[in-house]
Protein 1
Amino acid sequence: MTASRVLVLNSGSSSVKYQLLDMADRSRLAAGLVERIGEETSRLVHEPLAGAGGGRREQTGPIADHDAALKAVAAELAADGLGLDSPELAAVGHRVVHGGTRFTRPTVIDDEVLAEIRALVPLAPLHNPANVTGIEVARHLRADIPQVAVFDTAFHSTIPDHAAQYAIDAATAARYSVRRYGFHGTSHAYVSRAAAALLGKAPEEVNVIVLHLGNGASASAVRGGVCVDTSMGLTPLEGLVMGTRSGDLDPAVIFHLARVGGMSVDEIDSLLNKKSGLLGMCGDNDMREVLRRAGEGDEAARTAFATYIHRLKKYIGAYTAVLGRVDAVVFTAGVGENAAPVREAAVAGLEELGLVLDREANAVRSGEARLISPASARVAVAVVPTDEELEIATQAYELVTR
Ligand code: ADP
């Protein structure tokens, strides 16, 4: 029996999301999450899939730390006959947010790699520490199988210097590793490849603009399967309007808030990352609420929606210019996959760029990859559900079985 299962772990500061996949047929055996780790009201939701074990289970009660969280997950999996001590487990794949310039591909984690991921914490203080904790706990649990890091930044490592560098003093930039790294790379990689497949082409044959619109949002320009630009930068703050992040703004806004508003760097950081975007403009970060309120004529929600769409259009235009020829514009993630009004508004008026929507196809709700432009359109518009867990499992499995 060859081991073909991969456990995918996405560890956040107070949460762990997981999926167990069988790479023999790319099926999902179980999925779940632990949230509010470290609080009294921690919650574990576990769902065995593909006919395995019992039904969906939920438990609340204190889970002290990531170690306890992963042990609780292991117990749930064991109860379904999917124990992590199984010889069928081939690897654990870890989502790691920041790989800096050092990590451009999935990497088997040893002590040295772990130290390097830790050294990248200053670039991703909100994310890498939790990723490191998840790796440490999983290594402890199964020291005998490979632990693989799959980096959110890796797919963007091909972005040329002229798109990656900020136009600032070169010595200062080098000293502090200031450049554009980009994020959501696992999703952009998966979706751009799936979009090529939807068009019946190889990734090398097509140029694609991917719009990953979740609570965080980013755009990328992918030429022949290779990423050449993306909207997030040194951190996930740059680019599109997001649920709670501002995206692009004049950096002088920060000086102004500090000098005139008397705000500290931490206060401004929190303002721009957590209290801006849709939430900041209208009080709701969930696009469903924004759409509902805008539909009722709520002025703040309408303006927030218009601002979100305006930014999206600017990136579609910019990446059309970057790519020269565009074969497809692809929507993905929570908003991109589900919000037909966002897709409609984003491409409205862009006929000159070859973008036309089939309104009926756009209105269909589906979990499948699909075209939402007429067959005659010069540029295909598509919806492709992202699957970061499958992509992480695939990359990890390929690495350890090669
Ligand atoms: P995350 O960035 O947290 O991974 P997701 O990709 O899951 O986010 O997207 C979550 C967001 O998707 C929610 O905040 C919500 O705004 C949006 N969303 C989900 N379903 C819908 C829907 N039917 N219509 C509009 N927006 C939706």
Note: DSSP finds 15 helices and 14 strands in the chain.
Protein 2
Amino acid sequence: MSYVDVFSDIIAKQLNGELTKEEIMNVVEKPKFEGQGDLAFPCFTLAKTMKVAPHKIASDLAQKLEHPLFEKVVSEGPYVNGFLDQTEVSKEVMKTVLEQGRNFGSHEFGHDERIVIDFSSPNIAKPFSMGHLRSTVIGNAISNIAEKCGYQTVKVNHLGDWGTQFGKLIVAYKLWGNEATVREEPIKELLSLYVKFHEEVKNNSDLDELAREWFKKLEDGDEEALNLWRWFRGESLKEFSKIYELLNVAFDSYHGEAFYNDKMKDTITELKRKNLVTHSEGAEVVELSEFNMPPCLLTKSDGATLYATRDLTAAFYRYDNYKFAKSLYVVGHEQSLHFNQLFSVLKKGEYPWADRLEHVPFGFILKDGKKMSTRQGKVVLLEEVIEEAISTARNNIEEKNPELNDKDDVARMVGVGAIIFHDLKNDRKSNIEFSIEDMLRFEGSTGPYVQYTYARTQSILRKAKLEKISTETGLSDPYSWAVIKAIDTFPKTILKAFHGNDPSQIAKYLIDLCRDFNKYYANEKILIDDEGLEARLALVKSVSIVIEEGLNLLGIEAPKAM
Ligand code: ARG
């Protein structure tokens, strides 16, 4: 139990149900001025319900409050101020962390309910874009955080492996493609075929008609079309797997859009049963004017289905199969309208679970202030970007610590960690500037900075050569106090990250914790042999546990040495 809990708890007990512990926790704050203690409970709300002046409530309450973790509790105007006993609190906090280990900060309120997380979801035959990278790292972190809160997660890669573009691709391949070239560099080659199609169609509109026919064949199960499609899909997946391997991300399901091909009829029947479907110029749509939105298109006049049809079908499928408590879509904010339409159709159908669906949008990755684009064949191959980060990390190691063991492994952890951290430290809705150089800095708010701090804790613990660290004594210097307070807020930080689908809470938290710890390290001699040694090592060990767990929640590995 953290000291905010304890403080709220003793107040709640004195108040005899006037306010719950949770209500108190929500208003407990840091005192405004230095010298007023560590925690303040404002009595204004109570004053209203109890019809007693707030300063009177504060002084009555303060007199009755005591607890071993508090040196004293006093009133200050309308506030009850708690002064923590640093030695006792530090002992308590370190004991909790060392006992719970990597479980520290876990919650159980998820009760093994399921959260479906649709993330990454790149498009077959196209490069894995920066947007997909964002979706991948944000979705993966959200999933880890949900598990830390006691949920089971279902990680779904909703591959873009269906749609009219496959008709175009098949036509382009049949006209201008070459098997060997595709095998050699599938994504580059398929993309350039796709681009060529768009160039040629400007002068030859028959191509569009042809593409439609081929997609129709594909939907109807034509063998030749299916074989080409399977081949393109397989080659693309091979490429994507390399990225997932580098990022250390895995999925529970690869059911992409194609998976829903034979299930969309049922969706339309179901929506008709609910009287939601109307006809408009030969197309079938769900009117959404009451939500101030354009209609959601289900089928075109030629009967072809759309992205939205497949997403609706996927939503039904996921609810039937997973009975989710929440279903998240980690997709760029440019698709907000699509998801709003999707959710509105389900709300209009009065599906009781419709409000459990949530779009988790994010901003663009920019290069020199401009959106990184894959159109016009300008490809930024993500795998190359990751490899570059790894080799830069490798060079840094060679420069700073040439004696290091497992250099390749550490370089991979650092290069990849840098990319992930750079993304996750930002508020996900803002655009972020992509710069390998910035990501890999050892100082500042970077992944390598956090990893380096972790490696530092490991090196101290190795030098100390202690089998087991006891927490019989506490700490009382000012630098450790900042660290203790930071450690104590880890569980709450996880809550915030979970409720806001916001991994940046954890990234920022780690930066603060590392800053505090590095100040402690710079100001206190840790490894001198006196009676405080065990307590100082307990602090180092506690910090190392929290950093490692925090990094892992973000999907980043923590190297033992760097
Ligand atoms: N493949 C889509 C794209 O790259 C993203 C899919 C997101 N998930 C979904 N259920 N629509 O734009």
Note: The first strand starts at residue 39 and ends at 42.
